[in-house]
Amino acid sequence: MDNVTDRPLAGILLRLLSGILFTGMMVCVKAVSTEVPLGQTVFFRSAFALLPIVIFMAWRREFPRALATRRPLGHLVRSGLGAAAMFASFAAVARLPVAEATLLAQLSPVAMAVGGVVLLGERFTRHRAVAFALVLAGVVALVAPDLGDNQDQGRVLGYGLGVLAALLTAGALVTVRRISRTETAASIAFYFVLVTALAGLATLPLGWVAVSGETLALLVLAGLFGGAAHICMTLALRYAEVSRLAPFEYVALIWPVLADLMIFGLAPSHGFLVALPLVLGGAGLAALEGRRFRRPLRQ
């Protein structure tokens, strides 16, 4: 990614659009989760995400030039962590409302900040400590009401998978920090989606199912939405500083809540309403603090 170009309105609109597209992807994944195996869903989501990414790269006249790499092992580590995160995230959304699974994904900026301290030697500042405390309190608020409920262990497992997905995502992003010194954002996105598609395809012997036309359409849409959401977020961060975009993380959570209400008939839980400001506040603080340590990425 190039250095930020000061077009804040464009950045904000693209961030809002990325939230809508990401929610669309999660809705599609949840809608097929009861009939399509997890690996099959991951394959379709990743394979069809290649289409908008390659079209975007071709439009910018970067394909295939931008795919040249000097860090193949770094791409493999980043993509492996990202693929594992996708498996865990999709398994979580199969067991949780879309809004709760999306909220748990917001843990990754804080986990990434801690990872930067442990793996990259960055300072553990007061802001990072406060961010960690906020998200920890938010997770407790979200999960605590269900810990004593033996009737719904699947939901508790979903929380664990959601946290695991956020931690794996943070690991992938820390790896991105390292390889982005020599690698383009386009190559990082392309190889991630490619490796994830291959990981999903590797589950074929475990048993895939024949799907209806409607289910196939949802699987394809999950990929198209996911690829387009990545492009919009990349452009949003190019056009506006993280500090300008941080307040719109709250807006991005409106779409999953509306999707749960209107499509799946699920109202937000009390734990979710308490956890929402805590988790997003901590994630926003970590993202703003992390901006001080971020090197400009090449595009």
Task: Detail the topology: elements first, then pairings.
Blueprint: H1 8-32, H2 38-59, H3 72-93, H4 98-105, H5 108-120, H6 126-147, H7 153-179, H8 185-201, H9 213-239, H10 242-245, H11 248-252, H12 254-264, H13 270-291
What does this structure look like?
The protein is mainly alpha-helical. 75% of the residues lie in helices and 0% in strands. Helix 4 (98-105) runs antiparallel to helix 12. The model is unreliable at 293-299 (pLDDT under 50).
* Rg estimate, integer Å: 18 Å
Q: Biggest sheet, in brief?
A: none
Mean pLDDT: 85
Number of H- or I-type helical stretches: 13
Strand content is: under 5%
Q: Unreliable segments (pLDDT under 50, ≥5 consecutive)?
A: 293-299
User: Can you write the helix and strand succession as a string?
Assistant: HHHHHHHHHHHHH
Helix content: over 70%
The structural class is mainly alpha
How many strand elements? 0
Q: Rough shape?
A: globular
Q: In whole angstroms, how far apart are the ends? A: 4 Å
Multimeric status of the protein: single chain
